[in-house]
Amino acid sequence: MAADTCPIFMRLPDHKGLGLKTLMAGWFILLMGLGSILALPGASFARTQLATLPLQEQVFIRLAGRNTALVQEKRVLALVAGINKIDFSWQNVHIDPDAVYLDTLADPDDIALLSVARPPDASALVWEIYSSRDTDQPVVISYLLAGLDNLVTYTALADDQENTLDLDARLILRNFSGQDFDNTLFWLTPDTVFNTRLQHRETRQIQFFEQKDLPVVKAYDWDGRTMPHDPENAPHAPGIPTGYKIKNTSDAGLGTCDLVSGKTRIFQEDGRDGTIFSGEDVMPFVPKGGTAFLKIGNSRDILVFKRRIHREQTRVRRNNKGAVQVFDEIITDRFILENTKAVPVILTLTDTISGQWEPVNMGHAYTLTDHETLVFDIHLDAKEKKTIDLTYKVINTFTGNFARYNKIAPGN
Q1: How many domains does the chain have?
Q2: What rounded mean pLDDT belongs to the chain?
Q3: Is 257 within a domain?
């Protein structure tokens, strides 16, 4: 399925819950009923069998990626006026009884859940439901089902010039739950839903998109939080991570679906109708509009040095004895960048400034990912050596004694 035709998740109508226990916020109410729902004999009791497939109207499964999935199935109960006892039971499947949830989809004001009971030594729940009139009541039953999981894998193929990328995405479904699923909607993201069958003990692979000729930028990613600032004197020869930047946007050929995290194998065309294996990385979760970096290795062709060349205290505040207590500080850090390659490169440089600070003269455009993390995208020509000075002011730096004797007690 192409990326621009990701299916849209079909939401059920809003409804009033009649649940044993409200599921965690953030989980969509999905359902899957097993066994039978059964009204006990009596003048005011109705009997409804749900073991046969014709009574299943819709089945949804929300994939969580691990061993447990949230499952939902729509059924119709034939209720009569008065009290109806509904027995929900399951066999040879792993359902969390504390997460079973019964919901009505129509006329919720005419239906009321009176009680919920769990028979001893039984995989079952008994609901006692009051109905003000005879009615065929659409309901959903939701619960957590173990033994049903999934994983996502990607294959990326770069052209020999490393300007474009073909991206293939596959969903692998694995069912060891004890239950067969026919004509079921499996929901991976709000924009990515698959209608398929999945039998017990079956593993199924589904291609959910294939996009060719995605524009990419080969980038080198230096991060000051982990990389040495003086590579020539490092205990081992450091390498700067290199790989491809992919934008999940419409102008880049994507942008209609979130990219789910998954292992990615990366190849490159060799220019002779063959391919070579470049590396393996994990695609992070990339929302629509976001950017991913797929690492293919480390490069020692780009050198980054960081030097602190100036610091000056300003706005110094002293105590009555003349000792410095608080001050601001003007700091200049110098980055020396060198591209030893015979082709131009894009260097993504990440640096941090701790505490409260403000820019003075930053020397290059940057973006802030949080209050202390700066990201620079720097173009380096072939064989170019470039120097960038960052000057900034750190505000309200406290001396050691002041910080020691003016701590705030925990909890205050």
Answers
A1: 3
A2: 81
A3: yes
pLDDT above 90 (res 86): no
Q: Residue 68 in contact with residue 62, Cβ under 8 Å? A: no
Q: Is 9 in the same domain as 127? A: yes
3-class SS of residue 293: strand
Helices (H), 80-147: none
Separation between Cα atoms, residue 20 and residue 396, nearest integer Å: 54
Distance set, CA 96 to CA 60, 67, 68, 201, 406 (Å): 17, 13, 10, 20, 52
pLDDT digits (tens, 9 = 90+) for 145-170: 999 989 999 999 999 999 999 999 99
Residue 18 has pLDDT above 80, yes or no: no
- Domain co-membership, 142 together with 249: no
Predicted model pTM: 0.73
Residue 211 in contact with residue 166, Cβ under 8 Å?
yes
Verify that 246 and 170 share a domain, yes or no.
yes
pLDDT at residue 94 tops 70:
yes
Domain with 383, as residue range(s), is 303-403
> Which structure tokens are listed for 133?
């009139």
| Distant-in-sequence, close-in-space partners of 37: CB < 8 Å, separation ≥ 6 | 48, 49, 50, 75, 77, 86, 87, 88, 141
pLDDT tens-place string over residues 97-150 = 888 888 887 777 788 888 888 888 888 888 888 889 888 888 888 999 999 989
